[in-house]
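Read as chain and fold; for instance:
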Amino acid sequence: MTDPDPRPKNRRVPPPEPVAAEPPELAGDEPEPNAPPPPRPPRNLRPLWWSLGGLVLLGGLAASWFLLPIRTVTVKGHERLSEAQVRQLAGLTPGFGWLYYGRWRAAGLARSPWIEAATVTRRFPDTVTVQVRERVPFVRWKRPSGDVVALAEDGTVLPGARNVSGLPLLSGWGPDRRAEALALTRALRRYNVQSVAYTPSGFTVATTTTTVWSGDLATLLKYAEAIVQFPDQKIYIYPWGVSVQ
């Protein structure tokens, strides 16, 4: 007989069988035989290039030393120092590299008491010119020890000065008043000053015709015309006037 109910009947479906999971591949497992080898990391060539660059630079510097030596040296303005002395002070030894010559090499010019100013000029490829302005002996100074040395106008001691016996002689005791004595000698230059002696109490100036004493530098300069007005006299200058004996 035919089932009058056409709806499908419920049937029990068996559950699917579990599938076993594959174990994960461990880091230490061997690669497959046909797998390509891992790529090599790129080599760092920077140290090599730095080394090669340093060698090239050193080679260039060494070559410039020998290919560009100083061949021509001109010294100007020297009178008391010899050309050889100026060359030595300027560090201009034979064969020194022109490219490396500079202020550090010429420092001896600034240390010399005889050189007041110096200008060093380089001209490519091998020429150096040294222009100097020397200090000139201005007075003699008798030290407390008794030694007599030459001084420039700015008070610099000039060792080894010659032919200075005709210069004015500065001397004194007590506090060092050389700067004032130099200023006094400079201001009275037209009166043919022979000597200036200083003490704590004042200055005594001797000319070819007279002697002048004053306790104050400014007062002495103020009444300096008394040197001409009273020749062959001893002149004493005070803030209130002039006394002649």
About this structure: The chain is about 20% helix and 25% strand. The longest strand covers residues 115-123. The chain has a mean pLDDT of 83.
